[in-house]
Amino acid sequence: MTKSKLLLTAAASLALGTLPAAASAKDAAPGSTKSVVLVHGAFADGSGWMDVYKILKKDGYNVSIVQNPTNSLADDVAVTKRAIAAAEGKVILVGHSYGGAIISEAGTDPKVAGLVYIAAFAPDKGESVSTLIANPAPGAPVPPILPPKDGYLSLDKAKFAKAFAADVRPDLAQFMADSQVPWGVEALSGTVTVPAWRVKPSWYLVASEDKMIPPAAQRTMAARAGAQVEEAVGSHAIYVSKPAAVASIIEKAARSSK
Predict the structure, then answer these.
(1) I need a surface site. Which of 81, 173, 205, 252 has the fewest CB within 10 A?
(2) Domain boundaries, the chain
(3) Where does the record place the AB hydrolase-1 domain (predicted)?
(4) In 3-state terms, what secondary structure has residue 155?
């Protein structure tokens, strides 16, 4: 058969559906979850997910970014549940830092197929971020949280970069410090009722250079949750500094979930 005939035959087969076309990222894993909801943590807002968002969108995922008010856990769970309801089909729910408490409470939603914790708290029933940080291990770094003012917490701007974003570009780390979102004391003390990780598959990315949540504490929470664990060298702001590593574990969760 001549080259021209081979090309005609291939074209005809493709038209009849007998020869598979090149698959898009969205179609690469039939049955896998295509929607991702990203939940930020304390002292930050949803804009920090920008580079993770770009990777996921490029790879064919539907991505929603929750803008939590961080006034109380109940408020943040409500906002997150609205994002889940608006998403197409099943959802991979992703939380960073305090966002892990939010997804632990909101993730029991029937639309949630899996949970991904990014250097995040994973409270059990009756636990809060406050209880999880009450007894730090000897020698663990102390986050530079200032005394509450009008019911809200903030980080010392002069110490923000070293504690929160040590591997983030200095000018961006400074912007993050200056634009930080005050964290409500009620959010810190909000308790989880039914932890979603007990009933949903979970993944956990440990940030090995984290100075806000000690890596050892991250590993302990991940093990308790029965999560599939990966580690990457990065600060607490690993979702900003290492977006490829973060997007990678999210996509693994999406491909494994239905």
Answers:
(1) 252
(2) 31-133+141-256
(3) 36-248
(4) strand
